[in-house]
Write a structure and sequence with these properties.
CATH topology of the largest domain: inorganic pyrophosphatase (n-terminal core)
Strand order of the largest sheet: 3-2-1-4-5-6
CATH class of the largest domain: Alpha Beta
Number of helices: 14
Largest sheet: 6 strands, parallel
Helix content: 40-55%
Strand content: 15-25%
CATH architecture of the largest domain: Alpha-Beta Complex
CATH superfamily of the largest domain: inorganic pyrophosphatase (n-terminal core)
Structural class: alpha/beta
Length: 339
C-alpha cells in the first residue's frame, strides 16, 4: 500500500461513512479478530460500521468484544444485501478472492462501494481499489494493527481493539510458534497487552473450552492417524459418520492437523474431513521449512493459502481423495526429504 493510498484512505475516512467489513466463509480467529478489531476502530471514528460474515463460526470465538453485533449472510440475507448495496466502503479482510465468501460473492462483486483489501495470503485477485497485501505478515490481525498505525491512530487503540487483534494474531500463529511469528509480531503483541489485551484470559477463552464430545472426536482423529515415512508425511481422516457420532460442532476439528505435523521426522501433514452436506472433502495441509503446501493445494486440490498452511477441497469420495493424495506424494519426495 503506497503513501498515496494511505492519504486517499485517510481522506475517505475523514467524514462518517457507511462501511461493511467482510471476512471469508467459515471464518477463523484471525478473520473474526481482524474484522471486529477494525469494526471497533471505525465505530470509534464515528462511522456506521457493520461486520457481515458469510456464515457462522465456532463458539470459542463468540466471546470476542463486538461479536454479538455481527450479521450472518446465510441467515440474514436480505438485511445483509441491503447494507452491502448501500455501503460507501467495503473492507475485505483475511481473503483475497471474492469466491472465498461463498454465496456473498455476487452481491459483493456487484457493489459500487470502494473496496479495501487487507490480507496476507498469496496471489491476490484484482477486485479492490486499495490493496494492503503482505504475505510475510503473521496474520491479518497484525496487518490491521499496522493499518491503524499507518493512519496515525495507534494512540486510540483501546481494550476492545487490542483484545480482538491479539486473539487473531495468537490463533493464526499457533500461539506464536509458527515461523511467520517475527520480532515485529512480538512487539505488536507487547503493545496490545499494554493497551489492555489480557493474554491469559484470551488464551483460556479460545483453547480451554473443549466439550467432552470434541475431545472424543480428537481421540478418533488420532486413531485414524497414518504415517508415510518415505514421504515424511502424516495424514488424518474423519468421515461424516465419525463427525456425527461425536456430535461435531463447527470448530471442533480446528488444529487437529497439527498433531500430525508434531511427529518426529514429519514435514507434511494433512487432514481430510468428509462434508456430506456440501458434497466435498475438506482438506487442510501443514508443512515445515520451505515445503509449500500452498503450491500443492493450488495444483491438486483447488485451494491455496500460505507456504506452511493451506486448505483445499476434493469432490471425490474420502477414500479416493486419500488415494489421490498418496499417489502424488512420490513426485514431492525429493523436496520433502530435503527439508
Amino acid at each position: 500500500m503506497t503513501k498515496e493510498d494511505i492519504l486517499n484512505i485517510k481522506q475517505l475516512l475523514s467524514t462518517p461513512k457507511k462501511i461493511v467489513i467482510v471476512p471469508h466463509k467459515n471464518p477463523d480467529g484471525d478473520a473474526i479478530g481482524s474484522t471486529l478489531g477494525l469494526y471497533h476502530y471505525l465505530i470509534k471514528n464515528k462511522h456506521q460500521a457493520q461486520v457481515i460474515t458469510p456464515n457462522d463460526y465456532p463458539s470459542f470465538l463468540k466471546w470476542i468484544p463486538g461479536e454479538a453485533n455481527i450479521l450472518k449472510h446465510d441467515t440474514q440475507t436480505k438485511t445483509c444485501d441491503s447494507l452491502i448495496n448501500d455501503a460507501d466502503i467495503i473492507f475485505t479482510l483475511d481473503f483475497n478472492a471474492l469466491h472465498r465468501t461463498g454465496n456473498m460473492e455476487p452481491v459483493l462483486a456487484a457493489s459500487k462501494a470502494i473496496k479495501i483489501m487487507i490480507d496476507h495470503h498469496q496471489a491476490p485477485d484484482d477486485y479492490a481499489t486499495y490493496v494492503f497485501s503482505d504475505v510475510s505478515m503473521s496474520s491479518t490481525c497484525e496487518m490491521v494493527y499496522h493499518f491503524i498505525d499507518m493512519l496515525g491512530d495507534l494512540n486510540i487503540i483501546d481494550t476492545n481493539m487490542a483484545t480482538c487483534i491479539y486473539a487473531g494474531i495468537m490463533t493464526d500463529t499457533g500461539s506464536f510458534r509458527f515461523s511467520s511469528t517475527t520480532s515485529k509480531t512480538h512487539r505488536v503483541v507487547a503493545d496490545l497487552i499494554d493497551k489492555g489485551a489480557n493474554n491469559s484470559e484470551i488464551h483460556n477463552n479460545i483453547y480451554d473450552s473443549n466439550s467432552y464430545k470434541s475431545l472424543q472426536l480428537l481421540g478418533c482423529a488420532l486413531t485414524n492417524l497414518n504415517v508415510i515415512p518415505e514421504s515424511r508425511t502424516a495424514y488424518i481422516t474423519l468421515s461424516q459418520e465419525e463427525l456425527n457420532r461425536y456430535d461435531y460442532k463447527k470448530g471442533d476439528t480446528e488444529g487437529i492437523v497439527n498433531y500430525g505435523l508434531s511427529l518426529e521426522n514429519i514435514v507434511l501433514a494433512a487432514i481430510f474431513i468428509e462434508d456430506k452436506q456440501e458434497g466435498i472433502i475438506k482438506i487442510s495441509l501443514r508443512s515445515k521449512g520451505n515445503f509449500s503446501v500452498n503450491d500443492m493445494s493450488r495444483t491438486h486440490f483447488e485451494g491455496g493459502g500460505h507456504t506452511n498452511a493451506a486448505g483445499g477441497k476434493s469432490y471425490l469420495s474420502l477414500k479416493d481423495t486419500v488415494e489421490k493424495f498418496i499417489s502424488i506424494l512420490p513426485s514431492y519426495n525429493k523436496a520433502l526429504n530435503n527439508e
